[in-house]
Amino acid sequence: MSFAVQERLNAVDPRDAPLFAALQEYQRYLEGMVAVERALNATIFDLSTARRTLGARLGAVSFDYRMSATTTVESASTSAPTPDNDPPGTPSSAPPLDFRTRRRSIARPSSPTSPTTSRTMPDYHTPLPTSSSASSETELRPMSPSRSSTSTATSVATLPGSSSTVAVAAAAAGTDPLKWFGLLTPPALRSAQERAGTAVDALVAVANHKQRLLAAVREFERLESELGPEVDLGDGAPAGPHHAAT
């Protein structure tokens, strides 16, 4: 937003601030949806390229929902009042949700194995590790490094335009589709996995913008109801519900 436009927004009636806040959040929401659509289209294109390259090895039999997700989304409600939330006790208000993404970093085997003896496809008869066994190895890392990194350095990454952080948890190597092909992982499949994570990050940012948008709309409606429908606009006609805040 340009400096001149921001100056005009600062000079408007403070009662119109919730309306402008809602419009700004709506603009960010629309921009985020465009980013999500682009990321999803790129992911689908890479998956199509990988499927054509691998043939039958990348099909419904491989993706039987027994894999370990590389990216998941968590939500937490905020009970404390914030500038974007109505005060506690307001009937129409609800605690806002804060969304964040969680990365799963595929751990390497503890001892090197021969390429001829290691299997490239997972053993579906072997139980997968439970979430409790993997939660003890949870660590925070930036969202940009490779999923296969096993460094123990911890850090926190904040998504642009939101307060979301990216958490990384270790998982078994056999549950990552990229490990099924050994050292010859198709570049398109690796790119699709990265782009899918980017799409999830964009969706999380959009969800957080939507929460702030709804809070701004509730604040605008509250001020509109306080002014009431009998506000005189100066021309002798009472203000309607759409003119009460102007």
Structure characterization notes:
The protein is an alpha+beta fold. It has one domain (12-78, 96-108, 131-227). The chain is built from 4 helices and 4 strands, in the order H-H-E-E-H-E-E-H. The chain has a 4-stranded mixed β-sheet, covered by helices on one side. Helix 2 packs antiparallel against helix 4. GO terms for molecular function: unfolded protein binding.
Secondary structure layout:
Blueprint (H helix, E strand, L loop, with lengths): L2 H8 L6 H38 L16 E7 L19 E10 L24 H5 L3 E2 L25 E6 L15 H41 L19
Parallel strand pairs: 2-4
Antiparallel strand pairs: 1-2, 3-4
Helix pairs in contact: 2-4
InterPro entries: Vma22/CCDC115
Protein name: Vacuolar ATPase assembly protein VMA22
Organism: Allomyces macrogynus (strain ATCC 38327)
